[in-house]
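Interim report, section 4.2 (structural modelling).
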Amino acid sequence: MSASDTQGGSRRGPAFPKWLRQVLLTLGSIAITMLGLLFVTFIIGRVMPLDPVLAIVGERASKETYEAVYQQLGLDKPLIVQFGYYLWDVLHGNFGESLLNARPVAEDIRRVFPATLELATLGTLIGIVLGVPLGVVAAVRRGSWIDQIARVVALVGYSMPIFWLGLVGLLIFYGILGWVGGPGRVGIFYVDVVPRVTGMILIDSALDGNWAVFKDALSHIVLPASLLGYYSLAYISRMTRSFMLEQLSAEYITTARVKGMSERAVIWNHAFRNIAVQLITVIALSYANLLEGSVLTEIIFSWPGIGSYITTALLSADMNAVLGGTVVVGLVFVLLNVFSDLLYRFFDPRAQ
Amino acid sequence: MTATTNNMRDWLLSDTPTSRRHARVASTYQAWLAFRSNTLAMFGLSILIFLLLVAAAAPLLAPHSPFTQDLANRLAPLGTDGHVLGTDSLGRDILSRLIFGSRITLYIVTLVALIAPLAGLLMGTVAGYAGGWIDLVLMRITDIFLAFPRLVLALAFVAALGAGIENAVLAISLTAWPPYARIARAETLTIRNTDFISAVRLQGAGPLRIITRHIWPLCISSLIVRVTLDMAGIILAAAGLGFLGLGAQPPSPEWGAMISEGRRFILDHWWVATMPGLAIFTVSLAFNLLGDGLRDVLDPKDEK
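Predicted structure of the assembly:
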């Protein structure tokens, strides 16, 4: 990684310092954003009406025990020092212990996160596979019936409460038609059958060669993933359409057409190639949104991911778990944002 | 009569306004004409006007009280006598609850639509007008909030503040203001260096007067468009919080909370959860249609 970076840098010659400066600036902005996020979660944790000491020692603890825990938690120190402790802990991957099961929150998150990742990834894939072609065709045949359909699909996607669509989907495809598996990741007979490697059940069962589990898991994930995929599709197709329209009205497209180039080549080799970078940025953003959008979906489908984890913790006032989950989702969100921004800046010459 | 109408129309469509008020009225009228020709946007507007009327006349329209329980008549299906949309698990009339729920939805949306853009406007114009390190700090804060996952952050806020409508409004506003600050700042940067601002400044106007009297009015139209487009998102976020049990508390007939209540019976008594969902969908669709239309009228440069 670092070797290829230096090579790339030296080939650029005089541009290297500028490139390095960009990287440093980006790293700095990630650091500041993360610091801001941690500060906000820290403040949220402090303004909680619940007493964290009472939560640990219980109502009937003696005054001495209370004082000891109070000091152990560092609550007697100034706020800024407490924030320092908090930063130190988070940087070491320590989000404290869950008040519910007394396990480290970080461990819990590591356990549930792959489930969310699996769902959001599959959703994004569906969104790309269907959304990009739909957007391109809608732009090329602007005003046609397919453009109208694309418009309605997007409009409905922007207006529909995701948790409601999930419920209706369950009702129709599981309750009435019986085409898909119900809530949860696998049927009750397949729980914990395959050894856990990545935590993503489709991959784990495929690695294990246990196709019965794979099929069952697939039947369970297809509905929530399609649901998320629909929202991703609404966004991606809309953006693809507007990027394509911009390109198609450019003069170089007219030139290519005048040269006698086939329409297919004009669209895919010229126009589409020019929107590729913008499109990847959009996809990265949509992926980040799905990770978050999966919160409500996970609850509907009893999907044991980070969304379910945060909400369960929330309802039982397990603040360490809530804040730990928020920080992790925030971190992924920030990184994906930065990633899409970087892609855009480095690969699109127009942005430089 | 016809003559006066025609005169009135000519006066409104005139290209050469005779006074400042004339120009303002005429441009509003012409924008309205452009807007009126957009069927979908008009459709959205009529849904919203209908919603406003329903909310205003809720006690007159609702066939039952939204809170009266009737356990003998629980989970009655659609079209039952006296309960057109059926009843929920406590025998409460779903239609009446939907009608009263429109008040809660409007209440939440209105509050957020006032708080978030105002906060953003304040941040953005001050940052844009002051420039320098004030701009740097304010925009850094904006970026930080912009980089957050909105729903998860709202969840954490509500968790800390406690569940309830007011806290839900606060949490949604806290996560919704950054885009407005961005827009307001961008507008301010272009307005700041214009000749008329220099002229006002030469006349001795201070920063406060320039920002409130000369910059704010010019930022309003782009903010309104953005707010209208965001309304759907606000409704969905509020419904989401309600669904999670963090927004309006039972027995309040909030639509999201109603879906959550009906969720347990979805397979056998589908209408309990489905009806409030349709209501949410209709209203946020209306806001999206209206927002698209407004954008075309007020902000023609964005038209794609």
